[in-house]
Amino acid sequence: MGLACTHQPECPPPAAADRAAAQVLLHFPGVGCSLLCNGVLSFEDSGGLGPDGSIYPPHRPLPNSGGQPAESKTPDVRDVVSVESAVGG
Predict the structure, then answer these.
(1) Could you give the residue ranges of the DSSP H alpha helices within the chain?
(2) In this predicted model, what pLDDT tens digit does every residue of 7-47 receive, in sequence order?
(3) pTM
(4) Any idea where the domains of the chain sit in the sequence?
(5) In terms of C-beta density within 10 A (0-12 exposed, 13-18 middle, 19 or more buried), how is residue 48 classed?
(6) Which of 2, 7, 27, 45 has its CA 20 to 30 A from that of 68?
(7) CB atoms closer than 10 angstroms to residue 57
(8) Where on the phi/psi map is residue 39: left (φ > 0), alpha (ψ -120 to 50), or beta?
């Protein structure tokens, strides 16, 4: 079941580059995210999750990052193992 936009002009679809311009349906300030009309769960860091599970990395520069967007990195198993061994896991 998808969300049907009734706004004029219609909100951009989830896969569009301007997906974050869609109208906010629900805002969750305690969690730091909003559900947009196009089904995207938009986070305060400008990243998001699409209705199909797609991940949209943050694109807005973060404070004290030298004007660079946050790096998107998939965790490496070796990083997890080294953290576990450091904490005695």
Answers:
(1) 77-86
(2) 999 999 999 989 999 999 999 999 999 999 999 999 998 89
(3) 0.62
(4) 19-86
(5) buried
(6) 27
(7) 13
(8) left
